[in-house]
């Protein structure tokens, strides 16, 4: 029975990328059964989402890149602000994987594989994938699929959720499980999936239009993927979970035509993000990355040429050709002195040149223009650490980790700074937070217990550690209860 639930839910998740059918007036967007509360409440979805995110951190190569994360987050929340039926906060993150894929799960979590950047030619194409995933969350497709399955089987909600999350994370396993079901249940699942997909496309394309992206890039991207992998013996995960039959692509094109034409200029930040992925997260040699930049630049618009120069600078920086990197970054910063892609690279350059004080000065100046910006703040803290200004770094990082508790970058740097000053208890506490983010509850509690033993008896610091232990114990028990 669990195998059956697993396969059915797997196909539900396949709905994560589809084709639209929405008129611009949006009055043909019916609110189709978003009340899945009979099976799972919004609060429960948030709990399951948080638990699964911790499992993903522990098992997947999450991209902890402040610049890329800021960019993806900005696009995601631009879309969310234009979406209907938003009932949860949203978290966008990237997984280092060249396969084309994206998926969403409980609690507003949306994952993008870095491979998407290698295949999406424009920001609107990337946004079309994200808008589709956002629609799966806002329309509660996972909870609704569970509700449908619960009507036909006595499986517990916990078992259904576990099956569903497995299917999201491993579409191949889900598809394999599907073959064990009857033909009738298979067809029912496929039909339901197609329904989810069309609904996600309808809402997704409406969101794209309101957010001022090019709606035509949705059918353009989907059509290109379908053509590229039409005869592939092993299609990418996204096409396993998001099948693209011709009628869906045709439907998307027709829907896009209902929207007024919108001329969208090329996004330099999208192409900078794409260049960063090619240089650092595509799993190719530096010579291959450099060749890609040179070849692609020859046929690209003059408006995005700087992105290819930026990509070359990253390759030079990562291969320790610092003079070449500096020459390019100096030119780029003169053109756009407040661009976080360039500033982040400049900070890394100065540190590589053994001049971390230059990075400190630059980041401090930019913080007056962009106070509390996470990219600049984390670079500032790192530069302070490299400049051996450990106490200053700790002060910055204490504030940063309070405001961004789920960013492991902050905790890693805080651990390093405290080690340099011999603050063993605070180092243990920082490392404990990283373990908790990876659902390693017992190890996290153990480190906090050690920190408490090192703290002065009866001190505020010890009280803080003990209070955190109580919180982690409660979180661990809640997590175990979900399994």
Q: What level of helicity do the residues show?
A: 55-70%
**What is the tally of helical segments?**
24
DSSP strand count: 3
Largest sheet: 3 strands, mixed
If you had to describe this structure to a student in words, what would you say it looks like?
The chain is an all-alpha fold and 483 residues long. 68% of the residues lie in helices and 3% in strands. Among the domains are: 2-256, no CATH class; 423-483, no CATH class. The chain is built from 24 helices and three strands. The relative contact order is 0.11. Helix 1 packs across helix 8 (171-178). It has a three-stranded mixed beta sheet, with helices on both faces.
């Amino acid at each position: 029975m669990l195998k059956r639930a697993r396969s059915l839910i797997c196909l539900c998740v396949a709905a994560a990328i589809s084709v639209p059918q929405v008129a611009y007036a949006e009055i043909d967007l019916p609110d189709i059964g978003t009340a899945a509360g009979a099976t799972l409440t919004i609060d429960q979805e948030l709990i399951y989402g948080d638990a699964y995110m911790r499992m993903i951190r522990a098992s997947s190569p999450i991209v902890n890149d402040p610049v890329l994360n800021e960019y993806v987050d900005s696009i995601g929340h631009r879309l969310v602000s234009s979406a209907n039926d938003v009932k949860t906060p949203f978290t966008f993150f990237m997984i280092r994987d060249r396969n084309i894929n994206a998926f969403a799960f409980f609690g507003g979590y949306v994952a993008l594989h870095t491979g998407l950047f290698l295949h999406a030619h424009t920001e609107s194409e990337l946004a079309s994938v994200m808008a589709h995933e956002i629609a799966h969350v806002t329309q509660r497709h996972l909870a609704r699929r569970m509700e449908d399955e619960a009507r036909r089987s006595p499986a517990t909600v916990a078992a259904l959720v576990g099956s569903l999350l497995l299917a999201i994370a491993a579409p191949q396993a889900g598809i394999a499980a599907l073959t064990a079901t009857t033909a009738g249940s298979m067809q029912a699942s496929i039909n339901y999936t197609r329904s989810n997909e069309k609904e996600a496309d309808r809402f997704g394309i409406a969101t794209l239009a309101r957010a001022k992206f090019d709606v035509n890039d949705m059918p353009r991207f989907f059509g290109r993927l379908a053509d590229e992998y039409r005869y592939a013996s092993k299609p990418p995960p996204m096409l396993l979970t998001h099948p693209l039959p011709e009628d869906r692509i045709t439907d998307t094109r027709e829907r896009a035509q209902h929207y007024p034409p919108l001329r969208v200029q090329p996004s330099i930040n999208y192409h900078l993000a794409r260049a960063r992925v090619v240089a650092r997260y595509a799993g190719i040699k530096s010579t291959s990355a450099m060749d890609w930049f040179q070849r692609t630049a020859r046929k690209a618009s003059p408006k995005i040429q700087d992105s290819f120069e930026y990509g070359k600078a990253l390759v030079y920086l990562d291969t320790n050709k610092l003079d070449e990197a500096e020459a390019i970054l100096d030119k780029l910063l003169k053109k756009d002195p407040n661009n976080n892609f360039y500033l982040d690279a400049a900070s890394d350059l100065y540190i590589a040149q053994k001049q971390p004080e230059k990075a400190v000065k630059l980041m401090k100046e930019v913080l007056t223009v962009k106070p509390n910006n996470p990219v600049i703040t984390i670079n500032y803290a790192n530069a302070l650490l490299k400049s051996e200004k450990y106490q200053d770094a700790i002060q910055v990082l204490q504030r940063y980790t309070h405001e961004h508790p789920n960013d492991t970058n902050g905790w890693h740097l805080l651990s390093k700074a405290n080690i340099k000053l011999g603050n063993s208890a605070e180092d243990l506490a920082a490392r404990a937070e990283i373990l908790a983010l990876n659902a390693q509850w017992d190890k996290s509690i153990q480190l906090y217990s050690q920190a408490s033993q090192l703290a002065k008896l009866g001190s505020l610091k010890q009280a803080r550690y003990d209070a955190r232990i109580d919180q982690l114990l409660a979180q661990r028990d809640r997590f175990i209860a979900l399994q």
